[in-house]
Amino acid sequence: MTHLLHRSIHTPPRRAVSASGISFTDDKGQTYIDASGGAAVSCLGHAHPEVIAALHAQLDKLAYAHTGFFTTDVAEELAAHLIADAPEGLSHVYLLSGGSEAVEAALKMARQYFTETGQPQRRHIIARRQSYHGNTLGALAAGGNEWRRAQFKPLLMEAHHIAPCFAYREQQEGETDSDYAARAAGELETKILELGPDTVAAFIAEPVVGATAGAVTAVGDYFKRIRAICDRYGVLLILDEVMCGMGRTGYRYACEYDGIAPDLLTIAKGLGGGFQPIGATLLSRKIFDAFADGSGFFQHGHTYMGHPMAAAAGLAVQQVIARDNLLANVQAMGATLNAQLQATFGQHAHVGDIRGRGLFQAVELVADRDSKAPFDPARKLHAKIKSEAMARGLMVYPMGGTIDGVRGDHVLLAPPFIVTEAD
Ligand code: PLP
């Protein structure tokens, strides 16, 4: 008997009782290797002693202070730490409790930027079809996963979607990376022109697509082109790094790899490594100045934003990652993981693609390698993989994605950054 509404009512989850390092233990004594960090969250693994010590120390000092009354040393220090090596132009941090909240704030910041700067007609949000930006209504409206959106459509704000940059599915035979990048990015320009450039507020995209497609990296200079198109039409660029950011790809901010900087950047998951619920929206000096010179505030806020315990977790996690140079391990172990996946599954009759960056890797499963036809969704392959893996003591993150209406299954692997070759 349970009074919890679980994610799946008819298959309630196993009961976890403890976790340390890269493994979990349940109430039956079975252990599980956490090869997905939950959902790409637990970047330092579990029970990291320094994070626990930082949390105890913060709890002894100050557990909660409402941000309408106080700021705190720990929140200020975390913001400074995040900005110190943030992409160029990002100057301020808005602390929240998770990824969806960070995306909601980014969408509203984009809108308020234009009301503050005398362009109130800019209201359209453009996103990509193969994307996930969260489950709250604004983030769900922006996201491009039709399955998640379908029944809530009557409640969703208007948003516009273009094709993702997804080479395995959409790059044509004989098309170079550069030509494909130009074609995929060109969809943004076409959409902006169709809507009317002075009505578009922002374009939002994940630098590496996570849950909906499985570690899909862009090809060539796709993101440089996207940045240039946004600049050409005065459209703000929001990069959603909730899943791929904070070192997951081997770069602290995933967009470093692409050599671009957004106007707004969202982070969560690996920011607090699961030790506390925390997310953040980073904003550029240009947006900060518009608020500062205009109304003097961002018209938003949550009771738990800037929570000292969450900030303490985020600061401790990020300090350990920096001090122990864990991003080098993410790059090295990511290459090892990819090579081992290729060696083990590369020729498998039902493996279509193996891809990713850093410790953010995925295997796409297909019914037929030649045609790339996905499995029938009624088979619920991803659910079976998850339960079979759990039965064998392994946590992976399988999903059925949607590619322009075609469902495909993939398995995402996102082990903690402390993972070793032996693990
Ligand atoms: N954005 C991206 C890219 C995500 O992967 C997720 C969660 O998976 C979210 C936003 C939503 O974050 P949360 O589940 O913390 O609300």
From TrEMBL:
<keyword id="KW-0808">Transferase</keyword>
<dbReference type="GO" id="GO:0008483">
    <property type="term" value="F:transaminase activity"/>
</dbReference>
<dbReference type="InterPro" id="IPR015422">
    <property type="entry name" value="PyrdxlP-dep_Trfase_small"/>
</dbReference>
<dbReference type="InterPro" id="IPR015424">
    <property type="entry name" value="PyrdxlP-dep_Trfase"/>
</dbReference>
<dbReference type="InterPro" id="IPR049704">
    <property type="entry name" value="Aminotrans_3_PPA_site"/>
</dbReference>
<comment type="similarity">
    <text>Belongs to the class-III pyridoxal-phosphate-dependent aminotransferase family.</text>
</comment>
<dbReference type="GO" id="GO:0030170">
    <property type="term" value="F:pyridoxal phosphate binding"/>
</dbReference>
<keyword id="KW-0032">Aminotransferase</keyword>
<dbReference type="GO" id="GO:0005829">
    <property type="term" value="C:cytosol"/>
</dbReference>
<protein>
    <submittedName>
        <fullName>Adenosylmethionine-8-amino-7-oxononanoate aminotransferase</fullName>
    </submittedName>
</protein>
<dbReference type="Pfam" id="PF00202">
    <property type="entry name" value="Aminotran_3"/>
</dbReference>
<dbReference type="InterPro" id="IPR015421">
    <property type="entry name" value="PyrdxlP-dep_Trfase_major"/>
</dbReference>
<keyword id="KW-0663">Pyridoxal phosphate</keyword>
<dbReference type="InterPro" id="IPR005814">
    <property type="entry name" value="Aminotrans_3"/>
</dbReference>
